[in-house]
Amino acid sequence: MTAARQERKSHRLAAIAAAILGATVVSAGLASTSIGAATTEQVVVNLHTGLAIDGFDPVAYFVEATPRVGRADLELQFAGVTWRFQNEGNRAAFAADPEVYMPRFGGHDPLAVARGAAAPGHPRLWLIVQKRLYLFYSAKARAAFAANPAGASEAAERHWPEVRRALAR
Fold this sequence. Notes:
Helix content is 49%, strand content 15%. The chain has helices at residues 3-27, 31-36, 60-63, 88-96, 98-101, 110-114, 139-147, 149-168, and strands spanning 71-78, 81-85, 122-129, 132-136.
């Protein structure tokens, strides 16, 4: 097989793998935020609802160690977006120190940010590392981050200013 033919075959196989991965994510119900999230915002926002991190309570990740959907009657405006909370205590904690509870990189996947791109993370694919919340586009990205959080975070920190500038356009 010629080199050019091998390259075409490789591209076709990569496209098929990407389609299968996409179908797997959709069938698992994990693509709703990724597909419906704005990637032009510095904080990931659901395009249909206007809610940060799809309406999940950012404080719940820390105090309950699980994602919880916030309530419509417990909202707070911060960083130009609407955040929802499960209870008054969580809303008060966020209002007192939002930088502690907001997902790092605005909820964009840190591995994508490390590559200089913005990919919205899914609120059900998360990790807390060194007291910071990270959201991920896929389970594979979360596993890769978990294998080397310090290296991945460092690379993402280096690229975040350029990604933020691109998002602001």
